[in-house]
Amino acid sequence: MAPKKEPIHKFGLARIKVAIWENQSKTGKTWFNVEIVRAYWAGDKWKGSNKFGRDDLPIVAKVADMAYAWIWEHEHSKSDSVQVDE
User: Fold this and answer.
1) Which listed site, 2, 17, 45, 61, has its alpha carbon 20 to 30 Å from 55?
2) Residue 59 and residue 10: Cα distance in Å, rounded?
3) pLDDT level of residue 62 (50, 70, 90 thresholds)
4) How far apart are CA 40 and CA 50, in angstroms?
5) pLDDT band at residue 1 using 50, 70 and 90 as cut-offs
6) What was the pLDDT predicted at 84?
7) Phi, psi (5° rounding) for residue 57?
8) Mean pLDDT of the chain, nearest integer
9) pLDDT (mean) for 42-61
10) pLDDT digit string (tens) for 15-47?
11) How far is CA 36 from each of CA 49, 63, 73, rounded to the nearest angstrom?
12) Taking the CB of residue 63, how many other CB atoms lie within 10 A of it?
């Protein structure tokens, strides 16, 4: 069995956690998938849910925007690595 792939980036606000995975096609094209989870305490351990309450939604919107910005920056930092002479 192949080792479990880890996210390329993780962050969170309050109980809302985000994981970003980088994927690559056979032709070398890169794309990203994002997982947003609400962490909660159940019994004696932390669990996660993809269901959100009303008060979670502003935070979900914020972390989705942050994930988009991180992916945008990550994609463009690779293409901007070419040096231009002044």
Assistant:
1) 45
2) 15
3) very high
4) 11
5) low
6) 47
7) -60, -40
8) 90
9) 97
10) 999 999 999 999 999 999 999 999 999 999 999
11) 9, 8, 19
12) 19
Give 21's contacts (C-beta < 8 A, 6+ positions apart).
Answer: 5, 7, 8, 32, 33, 34, 35
Give the pLDDT score at 80.
58
Both tokens of 9, joined, read 């980036």
DSSP designation for 13: E
Nearest alpha-carbon partner for 20 in 32, 31, 29, 30: 32
* Nearest to 18, CA basis, from 58, 55, 72, 68: 68
Residue identified by tokens 């009303």 is: 54
Instruction: Give the CA distances from residue 8 to residues 11, 58, 60, 69, in Å, rounded to whole numbers and listed in that order.
Output: 11, 24, 19, 14
Token representation of residue 67: 């994930």
Q: How many residues does the chain have?
A: 86
